[in-house]
Amino acid sequence: MEYVSTRGSTPALGFEDVLLSGLARDGGLFVPAHWPSLETAEMRALSDLDYAAIAARIIRPFIDVDVLDDNALAHLTRDTYEWFDHPDVAPLRQIDDDTWLLELFHGPTLAFKDFALQLLGRLFEHVLDRRDARITIVGATSGDTGSAAIEACRDRSNLDIFMLHPDGRVSEVQRRQMTTVIADNVYNIALGGTFDDCQDLVKALFADHALRDELGLSAVNSINWARVMGQIAYYFAAAARLAVPDEALTFVVPTGNFGNVYSAYVARQMGLPISRLVVASNRNDILYRFFANGEMSILGVEPSLSPSMDIQVSSNFERLIFDLMDRDGAAVDAAIRAFRADGVLPDAAALCDGARGLFEGQRVDDAETLDVIRDVHAQTGVLLDPHTAVGVGAARKTPRDGLKRVVLATAHPAKFPDAVEQATGLRPALPMHLSDLLTHPEEATAIDNEFDAVRDFVRAHAVAAW
Fold first, then answer.
1. CB-CB contact of 294 with 348 (8 Å)
2. Cα(378)–Cα(341) distance, integer angstroms
3. N or C: which end of the chain has fewer CB within 10 A?
4. Torsional class of 430: left (φ above 0), alpha (ψ -120 to 50), beta (otherwise)
5. pLDDT of 119
6. Residues forming the active site
7. Torsion sign (Cα): 311, 315, 317, 318
8. Can you give the C-alpha Rg of the chain in angstroms?
9. Whole-model pTM?
10. Which fold has domain 92-108+226-424?
């Protein structure tokens, strides 16, 4: 499998180089040069497999056999998912006649990011050992990516990880899951700004090619193709449990950076019968406005009860634009440059027309989020985190079409106890392995929203620079 950049001017690379590069040198995102496909019989056969085996089967076409043979890949996925605390890894829970929750919070940091990042940490280690190399990871987080990436990368001898989070804009549990990890290769940066500012600074570090080469920069954000790849499997797993491919499904995905719902799009490109993908947004509704009105314009980021979705510039949307523009990298490059310069995506209405057959946008504000948490608990006894509640609220706004609907439950309610308590009067407890989280000392460095300050900090502490 070869990978190409969405901007069109970086040479095609193999999986190892894509994994370690993260972002293409032309500023684009890597995608497979072609979409692999699964036959109907192959998808039916997934129902006989456990989650680790499903993941190995779905990931196989994207990784060259000379990088990771079948036995090594099966061992890697087994090792990744045996640490999840539910036997089904990604269990389904029915909440009404035609709606299921796909629970993606049974990993070590209680969020869906664990599915890809626990895999990514092991892939990094495998490839770096093969190459006798070392990398410096820089990442941005709106809350969950940071803790999952740090947990996956802590104490690994061949990498350092620097994680930027927007100071004061993540929940206390999210922050502490990052800042209480005291390890020689982990550096937490509390940035004065928004998640979009954090993400822009990470991309600026990658755009400095001399720095990139000096430090061996790599990425754990979903700009790294391996992050998207690691999430595709749970769409196939959900379908296998619900008697698909004999019938199509609708997936409803709480969405910030567009990586999770893009993984569902990839699953459909591979042959999974998905009727509709509902993009669920909170008050930061740039994606909703695109799918509903055919316009995409950047507004200010507003804090909400679902902070992991407080994003205006969704990086992975560029990967969808690449397909909507018939994989014309030069056209994508021009469109993204205009979008970042002017705050408005050119020809958005035409692009929206190309996406509407599959995608639909819905928006759920904070008051509606609290209503959903309260109502679902009253009806089913299930506590939802606010991001999952946005998904359920979006599902309720989507016309029923007789198909089964799967809402992605992206985080454990205990990660956002204030919102849950506000809605229900109940304060969810952290699982046993995190029960003492709030008593641990924290370690983070506050840095202004300035490129030079972040660059200098990373350069001063990265082992690869010495």
1. yes
2. 47
3. C
4. beta
5. 96
6. 113
7. positive
8. 20
9. 0.94
10. Rossmann fold (3.40.50)
